[in-house]
Amino acid sequence: MRNHRSTRLLFELSHPGRRGIALPACDVPSEPIDASIPASMLADAPPPLPELGESDVVRHFTNLSTFNMSVDTHFYPLGSCTMKYNPKRNERFAALPGFADVHPLQDDRTAQGMLALLFELQVLLGEIAGLPAVSLQPAAGAHGELAALLVAAAYFRDREEHRTKVLTPDSAHGTNPASARMAGFQAVTVKSTANGGVDLDDLQAKLDDQVAVFMITNPNTLGQFDRNVGRIADLVHARGGLIYLDGANMNAILGFVRPGDFGADMMHFNPHKTFSGPHGGGGPGAGPICVRDTLEPFLPSPIVVRDGISYRLDRDRPRSIGQVRSFFGNVGVLIRAYCYIRTHGPDGLRRVAENAVLNANYLLSRVRHFLPSPQGDRCMHEFVASAEKLKTTKGLKQPAMDIAKRLLDYGYHAPTVYFPLTVPEALMIEPTETESKDTLDAFAETLFRITDEPAELLREAPHSTWISRPDEVQAARAPRMRWKPD
Amino acid sequence: MPYILNTIEDQREMLRAIGASSIDELFECIPPEYRLNRPLAIPPAMSEMELARHMAELAALNRNASNSICFLGGGSYDHFVPAAIDALVGRGEFYTSYTPYQPEVSQGNLQAMFEYQTAVCALTGLDVSNASLYDGGSAATEAVLMAMSATSRPNRVVAAESAHPEYRRILRTYFAALGAELVVVPAPGGTVDPADWERAIDDRTACALVQSPNFFGCVEDVASVASIAHARGALCVQAFDPISLGLLKRPGELGADIAVAEGQSLGTPLLFGGPYLGVMACREPFVRRLPGRIAGQTVDRRGRTCWVLTLQTREQHIRREKATSNICTNQGLFALRALIYLALAGRNGLRDIAALCLRKSRYALDRIRSDARFRPAFERPFFKEFVVRDGEGRVAELLAAAESDGVLAGLPLGRWYPELDDCFLVCVTEKRTRPEIDRLAFALQRHSEHSGAAARHA
Asked: Rounded CA gap, A280 and B335, in Å?
């Protein structure tokens, strides 16, 4: 039960003399510290951290947790984020000491179970992608994009081709152009058609021999499968460029179609979306990448390889781009992904896609009568509805925002709003396969009820949450980013 | 299917409402020529019980810090993780929540981010912290990129050879695409000589990257690096070990402009390298160049104090290609672990943990060097790690023998430093007991006697 007296900061709760970790007595000679390290290098006092007992800390954070929505407690129809159920078993397996307590620089001989699992995961992801060469190293989807673009850059350098541009659709995630720039490319935007597909005329106008990579999200951010994807791939390949698939929406097509089969040369997975890794309040995720064999030599190092019956980390990869992060990767997230895939098998993964798409279409069929979806009456795993007409019918300035906030009052997390940028007053809704028809019915009814409520109620929403809408302008104008004593 | 709730009957009703005759019809938008007309070639599904057995079998094949005595360091450390951390982050409201883009239903995470940022500022002595990055290595890279943009010097960075070799490796990966030059200053005696920094840093240099305690465990003269860098208009980026700040001067006091760390030591297990968290803090003037998420304090419409994600105009979802970085996650759950760790330890706990590491590592070196075959490679003050030179130069053999005695004795350095291929790095945390340290020394020396005897008989 929520304890409303619990929001004081840790630093305000500090009580000099308390501590939450009892240490064993020092069992080796206790020489003075400055006998080992010169006094000039030592601090006068330890850092001014708060002083709390274990029960202080436990009560504080337990109470804080009750101020969060979460998948365990609420429905999250959050488009493009694939907020599916996070299986408990995977948490338990990832925490086994035989995985959690393995040091990243241990000799390969002493970590054969870990390397076997990671090798198998490389194989599984390669098969699901239809792109056989895999690096598990990137720490997040955006990091996977960056790593893959660095792979592309290395590939073209190796071929002595000087290519400077990366094309991204205007409906793409913001990470696409940001990653392109970090990889040393110029990001060029390609227009979308009304249903979110790539505008082929604009693509052809911008496609030249300077284009290294075209980054495509398919199914796209409007929840539509771009039927032209093969044609797009042919056009880009004909000019010597590569196709990158943003794998954010893989949940829709698992086992139905593989990116490598529709022309993608490189892609990343978001295991924290597609393969059920928990989002952790904003991380960690992981961003493994899969590429064609021709790009394999350039993948980040190391990669797990099998020699007969044993496994090792192959660090001797002379054409590799090198490392993109410390150590091997976000292994804890990868273990959960492995467990998820092994729990499902080929039929199960296909069933995931079927039900994700069925749930989204069902919800669309219940919602589009009062919140039109500009791309029509069918979708893949998600759809985008527009609240534009509420501007005139209700006089709301930001109807998508107001609906999102009002949903919080009814115990639903908000959909993704104002994305993609190509749809006015966009509400991007992704139910995932782990929700039931009952939940979707109740959600659709609530959404309908909200569009029928007085404008005033929406404009001031949420009313029942711990706080009302925060003043974000003030937060940015005079930023206060840490606690200071009054 | 374990996680799907729709029954056949539900599916039928839903299809009727949609106006579709089958689920397959919903996939007709995918052109047939691309469709996979076979099942994925992956193993069949396993039940929870089967998977439990399979995972236990794989786990049993790994040596680890629970079934062996671990003296491995090099950026990932076997520090103690209090049970309260797992209990708290194991709450579904934390680990199954999303990024706090809806602040009204995310105050728990946002307040924790704000507290984390405050704790990192307290730890580093710097003004501003973000809410964490991926890991230590990518944080170091982001700090360098930030310095390049802050100084408008996009072409040149100077890094210490004694900084983590993987950090330098990551920088080279990024620089290959950006066309920037990474100059490495040597550390032949275990630390970099200020005169070498003087020579290397010029007026085109964006920053100096120094790690202290460095990869060898030695404490560097960061204050000199900072003043040399500042004299040339460059910034000083320090990578640090959070535990060491229980004793050592803080980056802010030493003159660092940006400080980064691998945050794993703060309450996260080894996990074969991740997920961890990248800690990053900087001085006030650079705040708008700071990558990653930041929580800021504000008030709601009723005047109640609350927190939101702030300064989002730096970020990719607003700025796209003009963003300070492409990063769109922080390591929320692992930043929470670090915060809980720091809250439990408190100022005095952190000091005492650091003192235990220091004294136990000193004791370990004394015990190891009691055999004349082993010598410290460097005569410099060190924190919890030190480099041992094997007079017989048979590091791989020695470490393998110790491992068969149940001791993960150290990291061979030849992979990163060919000139140190007769050396290994030993790390001693507060978890190691005197008997365990004695066993380490015994394992090394026993093997030393064997090989010595073998050599005499040859």
From this structure: 10
Which CATH number fits the domain that encloses residue B377? 3.90.1150.10
**Pick from A415, A418, A370, A416: which is nearest to A397 by CA?**
A418
Contacts of B352 in chain A (CB under 8 A): 23
Claim to verify: residue B319 and residue B403 sit in the same structural domain = no
Q: What are phi and psi of B156, to 5 degrees?
A: -150, 135
For the stretch A383-416, pLDDT in tens is: 999 999 999 999 999 999 999 999 999 999 999 9
How crowded is residue B207: how many other Cβ atoms within 10 Å of its Cβ?
26
Nearest alpha carbon to residue B241 among B362, B106, B384 = B384
Domains of chain A: 89-344 (3.40.640.10), 351-468 (3.90.1150.10)
B457 pLDDT band, cuts 50/70/90, is: very low
Q: Which of A175, A331, A479 lies nearest to residue B271, judging by beta carbons?
A: A331
Q: Is residue B427, in this structure, part of any structural domain at all? A: yes
- Which residue range is the domain that position B370 belongs to? 69-77+349-457
Answer with the one of B341, B376, B404 that is the final residue of a domain. B341
Contact residues, B window 166-225, toward A, CB-based 8 Å cutoff: 166-167, 169-170, 172-174, 176-179, 219
Contact A71 B97 (CB under 8 A): yes
If you average pLDDT over residues B416-441, what whole number do you get?
A: 98
Count of other CB atoms within 10 angstroms of residue B289: 17
Angle between the A175-182 and A141-158 helix axes, to the nearest 10 degrees?
A: 40
Q: CA A163, CA A183: separation in Å to the nearest integer? A: 12
Q: Which residue of B has its CA nearest to A49?
A: B347
CATH number at residue B241: 3.40.640.10
Indicate the pLDDT class of residue A5, thresholds 50, 70 and 90: low
Query: Is there a contact between A339 and B118 if contact means CB atoms under 8 Å apart?
Result: no
Both B261 and B284 in one domain: the answer is yes
- Nearest chain A CA: its distance from B184 CA (Å): 17
Please give the ipTM for the structure prediction: 0.97
**Same domain, residue pair B357 and B300:** no
Hey, are the CB atoms on A283 and B91 less than 8 Å from each other?
no
**Total structural domains within chain B:** 2
B170 pLDDT tier (thresholds 50, 70, 90)? very high
Measured between alpha carbons, how far is residue A42 from residues B55, B260, B318, B380 in Å?
Answer: 46, 19, 43, 15
| B139, B213: one domain | yes
Please indicate whether, in this complex, the C-beta atoms of A103 and B41 are within 8 angstroms of each other. no
The CB density around residue B454, as the number of other CB atoms within 10 Å, is: 9
B392 and B325 housed in the same domain: no
Distance from the A281 Cα atom to the nearest Cα atom in chain B, whole angstroms:
4
* pLDDT tens, residue by residue, B302-323: 999 999 999 887 777 777 777 7
Amino acid at B119: A
